[in-house]
Amino acid sequence: MGILNCGHLSALLFRYDGTLERLHSTCTVLGLFKEWDCSAGERPLCSGDTLALYTDGITESFNDAGEEFGEHRLIESLRRHREQASPVLIASIVDDVKRFSPHEQSDDITLIVAKCT
To answer: Is the pTM higher than 0.70?
Structure first.
């Protein structure tokens, strides 16, 4: 799998054996600079691996105490629900975010999950 991440949050790659890889940005945001250079990375995918791409609307959802949902809660939620089919996994994580932050969202919640079979 080829990887380009232009200033977004690190993608999360859960390996079939339970380990986690963060796929960090490969360059800065696309379109802001006249001179722009981007490197690409590659990661092999194995059966049982799960890739999660998400926006900051998930990690920056706040509860009433002012705490962010954060990457650590997202990782816990992904681990807890990772055996589910992708649509159910996504719905379960969004439910976890909405339970944590029950008021109206101030940002989009975008989550893409790909499972390697």
So the answer is: yes
